[in-house]
Amino acid sequence: MIGKIVQVTIDRPLGTYHPKYKDLLYPVNYGYIPGVFAADGEEQDAYVLGVGEPVAEFTGRVVAIIHRFDDIEEKWVVAPDGASFTKDEIMRKVAFQEQFFHTEIRMS
Q: Which of 56, 37, 48 is nearest to 80 (CA)?
């Protein structure tokens, strides 16, 4: 999956709050890949990095996969084509949510 171009439908835009956990603010755009199903039976979740404004959709490249050791889900990290991030940069950007899980960032 890493390196693949995908389209993300954003259902939690940058600057919005989690629908269930009202104190969880999204500092990045977050959504799902339509038609691609994850291990939890839902469409694949994705963080969109490198976009500084709320968007409804985004097409970009999968630059990393966040593997959760204590959850069935993995999260994809999608960024503009040509953008690059270190593992530390990715973790800082997604820590708002990933801090609650034991994770590993996988990159090519």
A: 48
